[in-house]
Amino acid sequence: MGVKKDQGERIEVIYSAALIRERIDRLAQEIASRDMRNLLVISILKGSFIFAADLIRALHVAGLSPQVDFMTLSSYGAGEKSSGQVTVARDFDLDVTDRDVLLVDDILESGRTLAFARETISGRGADRVFSCVLLDKRGHRVAEIDADFVAFDCPNVFVVGYGMDAGYRFRELPFVGRVVQDDG
Fold it and tell me: Is the bond preceding 46 in cis, omega lying within 30 degrees of 0?
């Protein structure tokens, strides 16, 4: 199944919008069961913005009232391959001292971005730092890190949609998919 796009491309659906919604509701319940104290959710932009928004609403339904902040980290630029170096384009504003922090990211692949964010937040005095990712692409780790909460395991393909892009395209898609070239 795919959604037709221009320039001889189509998007093959990997995780549908309905499946993502269902999994996020279950994730929120799992997170709420962990006795989070003075919870701050930090969304790692840009790719996680849709996932984070849906997760935060689901956390509310699950009985949590977190504060929310954002951090922009990058190791990709406009490409499909990581540069290997994490840079901070925008830091979060709220104080993390003695708080539980939930980092929300779109995909855990090399682990560099999530490890960098976790170390930064821990170093600023957070009590506990948890991580939640939409996709976990195992087998590509260069940093020793695993997410505390994972929505889906990711196949070994470059994914787009649901906030994730390829050259700043496809973020708007309500599902996770991959770009395939039409043969005709």
Answer: yes
Lowest mean pLDDT among 70-79, 112-121, 148-157, 158-167: 70-79
Residue 4, Cβ density class (10 Å: 0-12 exposed, 13-18 middle, ≥19 buried):
exposed
| pLDDT, the chain, mean | 91
Q: In this model, does residue 77 exceed pLDDT 90?
A: no
Give the DSSP per-residue string, 58-98.
Answer: HHHHTT---EEEEEEEES-TTSSS--S--EEEE---S--TT
Nearest to 147 by CA among 92, 107, 176, 120: 107
CA pair distance 91, 97, nearest whole angstrom? 15
For 181, phi then psi, to 5°, come to -85, 130
Tokens of 161: 């949609």
CA neighbor of 124 nearest in space, from 53, 60, 49, 42: 42
Order the strands of the 149-153 sheet from edge to edge.
Answer: 87-90, 67-74, 40-45, 100-108, 128-136, 149-153
Separation of alpha carbons 88 and 142, rounded Å: 19
Report the distance separating Cα 17 and Cα 23, nearest Å: 10
